[in-house]
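[scheduler] slot 2 assigned
[scheduler] job type: sequence-to-structure, two independent chains
[scheduler] chain ordering preserved from manifest
[runner] begin chain α
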Amino acid sequence: MRQNLFKIVIIFLMGTMVCSAQLSNLAKIDYTRLPIGNSDVGYDRFRGLFNYPIKLNEDSFLLVGLDYSKIELSFDKRVTNFDIDAIDDFQLLDLNIGYTYKMNDNWRVGARLSTGYSSNLVKKLTFEDAVFSGDLVFINDKRKDSTVSKPYRLILGVSYSENRGIPFPLPFISYYRKFHPKWSYNLGVPKSNLQYHLSEKSRVKLVAELDGFTANIQDGLLVNNEDIASKAIMSIIIAGFRYEYKITKHLELYANLANIISSSAKLKDKKHNTVTTVNKNNFYYFKTGIRFKI
């Protein structure tokens, strides 16, 4: 009971930037690796994101784009209760449309809707491969306001994504404050961090965040010679370090090295019942990439 409560608290306290990142990142390419370690499954993820902003007027923008991921699972030879080759490769694609406008001098609203697919793609796409997500946030950004002694940014809203590995809406809360010339923090859901600004171009972060995915298994997967799995779900909670370096004002390199706090890998049937759980005892999580942001 205590362990479950701890996990819930961790999930709730980890804060920010799913929708904010989608609205601010114009392009991003990254690579994530979760080594098998002592568990029965690990994965490699290659991701590319592109958003194109369209200026409607001085206070509002429309963003259209896509977010593509290729996930390669690696299983330990101890896994014998299903065909591991049938689900060793998944592809995810989201087509996004976002809108942001300035409501008044203090608040800006941002929204994102997306649809796409998440599947092992062993045949043509069907409706069962489709995934949907959306975000609605309200932003009060005072980071560059000279009248504020301690710059801050507050984001409030809600976020839902069928690709996240946690298939239910999450509150979106993000509070950023720079309390020292070299120190700042960001508290919220689903990411949080404490930042030390090494220079104008580089910073180190202590981060906690959620990661994972949900994907359809086309034609189903026979498990234990009796059950048929139709969904693969992986969710992880990580905590560790992130380094960011600004090459230019808008172009940035980043790298994460983190420890796994909690992880889950399940196969579920069409009624959302868990038909099997894959042993997850991964220790390390690594991500690196480059992004162009506004």
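[runner] end chain α
[runner] begin chain β
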Amino acid sequence: MPGIAQGSRSADELLLRCRALEDDIEAFRDHLKRQRKEHTIEMSHYRGVVKSELKNLERLAERQKEAKEAKDSFHGEYKDNQTVEPPSLTSNGHDEESDDDHPNHEAGSEDEPVGQSVASSNLPFLESVWNATKSTRALVAMQKRFYYGEDVERRTGAGAARARRGKTGTRTSSVKSGKALVDVVAGNGLEWIKVSLISNHRMLMDKAREGWGGDSSEDDCSDAESTTSDDPDSGIPLVKMSEALLEAAKEIRIRAQHPHIRLLLPKVIEGRQPEIDKILHRLRSKGVTIECDGAAVAPRILHDVIDSMVPDPFLTFTSTLNIDCTILLALVSDFSHMEVEAEPWFHKALKRQVEIEDKENLLPNLLYPAIKGRKLVCTYEAAKRMREIVSTIGTPGEKARTEIFMNEGERDVESRRTELKKWTKFDVPQDLNLPVQIVDKASLSMETLPKVVTQVQETLTAINRSVFVYGWAADITTITSNRTVVKQIETVLDENAESEADWPKIWLCPTARSLVGKEKGRKE
């Protein structure tokens, strides 16, 4: 079929393909690491399955090599001794006649399972999943399990063993009764892709197991129909799998939307069997998008699609950015600008920031790309709180940078950039707009905001209300590293927003920096 990598009788060929697959996956992970996004995409389970398949194919290739050597040795012995003609052997070293002519031949001889294992390799499926992944935008996860249905109690650990022995006092946990495995989660979570290499023949076999009589006449089937379910296709694995995905999607809400299901069936040919088309129609009528042409699993060059798989969030930023207090502090922190050595009085969080900054280099790798070339503003409350913190625990360097970033004096942009170079180890972008301008939030009308803003405000402190509601009302991007507040806002919106249009523009910086400060006034 077009777009599908086929199986092979050669373990060596599959091994080469599996190594190429692993190399492609690792190249993608290296890209994520360079972008500081390796923790934003869940793919550890899929990587583990690929690595397991690679080890299995390495073993099979070795066994196939040994079988071939045994075959060659066998032929060599007969060539040296011309008295007996050797039996004809298969590519796996079998005697071709043995299975048919010798009923006592032992099935499953040492080399026989090699061919069977090679033929049943999971590699074509794994390749198809990866190719489907490379066809997506905004990848979130691979082979992620979702749960749905009623909560049921499950005994865990030692508690389960005690329960089996009839003892009481077992520990229990609550879990959902249903589960569905999604091969690819993309579209920022709103696209769920399931890949299946099922064929028309296999679907007909599955249907037959459910009591389908094929070409039997109505009279012949009348008795059978009375004993079958009113929904004869409900037990077919493809139908059960798809409907489980639909149920799981109902329990996930992202920006007021439920995920959409895409089912990729590259080996299924439509229009040949009405029974197959009926099943596909059933799933499409429930909202599942089904693709049977193989285009979605066609091979793609990673370099050509990687920017779509992991889109640059800065491309959607507004030309003016609303900066919250956490980012203001990160912009002036010694951790961000200087080589900082851990001091004896540093508590765990500060020591951790030293370690993280050595690896991440927040400014050149994340913050400067996010803010350069854009107008930077903040609310009076954010600026006031930031100055209070700097005044209390800031180092001389942190105080100097605060004046560069925040003081609205007469110095021009270029002189500020020049001054900043004295207080940083990094290059200062030529299009970094300084200073951050303090805005009057009272000048904005709140009437254009959705009704849900009232519920959001109830969860926020005064300073966070000033920051996030201002950005919302001004319809500009707010950038923050305050994960707790962003989570609070998202929780309220997930439960109460009427549409995606109700959501504010917020970018959560994945890492934070506090001030290095000084020992006096620090609290553990």
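[runner] end chain β
[qc] chain β: The chain has three domains: 11-101+114-124, 129-306, 313-508.
[scheduler] slot 2 released
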